[in-house]
Design a protein that fits this description.
The chain is α+β, with helices and mostly antiparallel strands. It is 39% helix and 26% strand. Strands 3-4-2-1-5-6 form a six-stranded mixed β-sheet. Helix 1 packs antiparallel against helix 3, helix 1 runs parallel beside helix 4 and helix 4 runs antiparallel to helix 6.
Length: 184
């Protein structure tokens, strides 16, 4: 995968299959300390120790539609090849957390990519799942939380075309603003 946002989408799809009702995504960019990290946390059914020990194996999958599960192993490889690390923790009935770290300036670190599109896919395709997205660049933070948006909309669905455009613009502008200050 040539964009980190695609890895995020893949891990979130695993969270959805684990019956998560809340997925939290944290992007933490710290250029001064040469660190870029992605944390994805869910409240799904979690994994037992045996499953957890096998999940990064590309020839292991719980899916019945195919015999390989490349997503976790590819994300792990992407982090390690970019001077970083990868950890996954999980407990049955408590959820799962995936943390991938990268050297911020590493030549092999893929770009984040179209994270606003990834978030829209998650928001629009899984109406029952709340998404909390937090993006930090140095000391500036942008947060988007579907729970807050749903409360403001007071019954207007997230799938309404005007809401979709507002969500995408809000995410794009929020991320742009925290990066813009970095370049000043």
């Amino acid at each position: 995968m040539n964009e980190l946002s695609l890895h995020i989408l893949d891990i979130c799809q695993n969270s959805i299959q684990a019956n998560a009702t809340l997925i939290e995504i944290l992007i933490d960019e710290q250029p001064a300390s040469n660190r870029f990290s992605i944390t994805i946390r869910d409240n799904g059914h979690g994994m037992d120790e045996k499953t957890l020990s096998e999940v990064a194996d590309p020839f292991y999958t719980t899916r019945t539609t195919r015999k390989v599960g490349m997503g976790v192993s590819l994300f792990k490889m992407a982090a390690e090849q970019a001077g970083g690390s990868f950890t996954i923790t999980s407990k049955p009935n408590q959820g799962t957390q995936v943390v991938a770290t990268f050297a911020h300036d590493h030549l092999d670190r893929a770009p984040l990519g179209a994270i606003e599109d990834t978030l829209l896919i998650l928001i629009l395709n899984e109406a029952g799942i709340d998404i909390r997205y937090e993006h930090v660049v140095n000391d500036r933070t942008y947060v988007f939380d579907t729970r807050d948006v749903k409360q403001i909309l007071n019954g207007i669905p997230l799938t309404d075309s005007d809401v979709i455009m507002w969500v995408k613009n809000n995410i794009t502008e929020g991320i742009t603003s925290i990066h813009k200050e970095e370049s000043l």
